[in-house]
Design a protein that fits this description.
Layout (H helix, E strand, L loop, with lengths): L10 E12 L2 E9 L9 E7 L5 E3 L15 E9 L2 E11 L8 E10 L6 E2 L20 E9 L2 E9 L5 E8 L6 E8 L7 E10 L2 E9 L14 E8 L4 E9 L7 E7 L5 E6 L8 H4 L4 E2 L6 E6 L2 E6 L7 E17 L6 E9 L5 E9 L2 E8 L4 E5 L10 E5 L6 E9 L2 E6 L4 E6 L8 E20 L7
Parallel strand pairs: 1-19
Antiparallel strand pairs: 1-2, 2-3, 3-4, 5-6, 6-7, 7-8, 9-10, 10-11, 11-12, 13-14, 14-15, 15-16, 17-18, 18-20, 20-21, 22-31, 23-28, 23-31, 24-25, 24-31, 25-26, 26-27, 28-29, 29-30
Bound molecules: beta-D-fructofuranose (FRU).
């Protein structure tokens, strides 16, 4: 199990839901099957935190116990209204034998006065199938994201046009209870997946951003995972009920990042967390019956700086750093084993590429095992290679990125079976699960030709270090 990432107490988890700061606490809900390490029986798990890192599990917030959600309380979001915490989620009901297509989905509401005990609204659903417009899927209709703009509430919902193109629908309300359909907010083409899940919409640095998680992505569009999550820059026009899309980017170029959600906290930070796993790729914790699967990514702050969107770990991680190891001005030609090791740490590295053709780090090394993070000058590619990472799934992911003054800046979070890499101050991020043996804790730096490790800091991350 991971040490500084949010997980379920046991069983299966997927998407983060209802991320919000309420009465001073950070709340994270998540898709949760407490009975098995496989998806099914979907509840809303719940945890709270003062600092986004140390989480306390709370009682399950929602269970599939009503006629409109009996086959799952699917993903959704949270908003505060009149001091109460409102959760908006999808009620899933199977209506035929084929669970892959015979289902009905409606949007439901649950309200809490204390942020712990939630009561489902007596008139659920608040957005039923009768509010699905013609030309939109009548089955895929889920993951309501609620937000307020001016004095109006909006909900956006993920769906498709019935012809394998993802789209997002917009709804409006004055009171959170009565909802009106407004229009198709945004729509993809045949390269952008057959269905859009988990939409999110927010503003950052005067830019409007729409996030969606397309299913069945087409590899020719730069997607290497069949489920990917993207952010689209553009303009939200509430009066016209549209979001004009300017351009589209992957949020994370690794293996395991899906269905993220964002929220703004009282420090005015826009924070994003994703599900750190993905569909249809089982992990050893499932096949070997460890009775759990899935975790959330480390919370990342999104910033818009010099026309770039940057994603970096929230600063609070610094409170949990200990046992610093430091290296500077090290000329590397070939391979060097660091005098430090571990399986739960943060690394911060500045590498001057000098004349090296390829250089990088090998993590969780041991007999026959290594996870390779490298930069290849030819092609200007950053590469995450987990082919020899251990017993979990393999694969290689690549992303194009330029060196900055011939330097590569890396920040890496390693936690037991996860690796999150923030490249060049968060310009690109790559996340992957790895399952090496316990003994594989080595760290190496390597270079083909000479490169210079200008600085390398490593800290163990220990949650019991500080009481928050
Ligand atoms: C995304 C998703 C959502 C759905 C939930 C079900 O991963 O498929 O669209 O609400 O998971 O658990």
């Amino acid at each position: 199990r991971l040490k500084y990432h949010l997980m379920g107490e046991c069983g299966w988890i997927n998407d983060p839901n209802g991320l919000i700061q309420y009465n001073g606490d950070y709340h994270a809900f998540f898709q949760y099957n407490p009975y098995d390490s496989e998806w099914g029986n979907i509840h809303w798990g719940h945890a709270i935190s003062k600092d986004l890192i140390k989480w306390r599990h709370m009682p399950i917030a929602l269970g599939p116990d009503s006629p409109y959600d009996q086959d799952g309380c699917f993903s959704g979001s949270a908003i505060e209204k009149d001091g109460k915490l409102f959760l908006v989620y999808t009620g899933n009901v199977f209506i035929g034998p084929d669970k892959k297509k015979d289902y009905k989905q409606t949007q439901c509401l649950a309200i809490s006065e204390d942020g712990v005990v939630f009561h489902k609204y007596s008139k659920n659903p608040i957005i039923g199938s009768d509010l699905i417009p013609i030309g939109s899927s009548t089955s895929d209709f889920r993951d309501p994201r609620v937000f307020k703009k001016g004095d109006k509430y909006f909900i956006i919902i993920g769906t498709n046009d019935g012809h394998y193109r993802g789209q997002v629908l917009l709804y409006e309300s004055g009171d959170m209870f009565e909802w009106k359909y407004k229009g198709v907010l945004a729509k993809g083409d045949e390269l952008m997946g057959s269905n859009w899940e988990c939409p999110d919409l927010f503003e950052i640095g005067n830019q409007d951003i729409l996030i969606v998680s397309p299913e069945n992505c087409n590899i020719v569009n730069g997607f290497e995972n069949s489920n990917s999550s993207v952010y689209m820059t553009g303009k939200f026009k509430p009066d016209k009920s549209v979001f004009d899309i300017y351009d589209t980017h992957l949020i994370d170029c690794g293996f395991d990042f899906y269905a993220p959600q964002t929220f703004k906290d009282d420090k005015q930070r826009r924070i994003i967390m994703g599900w750190m796993h993905t569909w249809n790729i089982p992990t050893p914790t499932q096949t070997e019956k460890h009775n759990w699967a899935g975790a959330m990514t480390f919370p990342r702050e999104i910033k818009f700086v010099d026309n770039k969107f940057l994603f970096n770990p929230v600063d609070e991680i610094k409170n949990y750093r200990c046992n610093r190891y430091y290296l500077s001005d090290a000329k590397i030609n070939g391979e060097k084993v660091l005098e430090s090791f571990g399986d739960c740490y943060e690394l911060q590295v500045v590498i001057n590429a000098n004349d090296s053709a390829e250089f990088g780090l090998k993590l969780r090394t041991g007999f026959d095992e290594e996870t390779v993070l490298s930069y290849k000058r030819d092609g200007r590619l950053f590469i995450f290679d987990r082919e020899k990472s251990g017993s979990g799934p393999g694969g290689i992911r690549k992303t194009a990125i330029e060196l900055i003054d011939n330097r590569l800046y890396l920040r890496i979070l390693v936690d037991t079976c996860s690796v999150e890499v923030f490249v060049n101050n968060g310009e690109k991020v790559m996340t992957g699960l790895i399952f090496p043996s316990k003994e594989s804790t080595g760290i190496k730096v390597f270079s083909k030709g000479i490169c210079i490790i200008e600085t390398l800091s490593k800290w163990d991350i220990k949650l019991d270090k500080t009481v928050v």
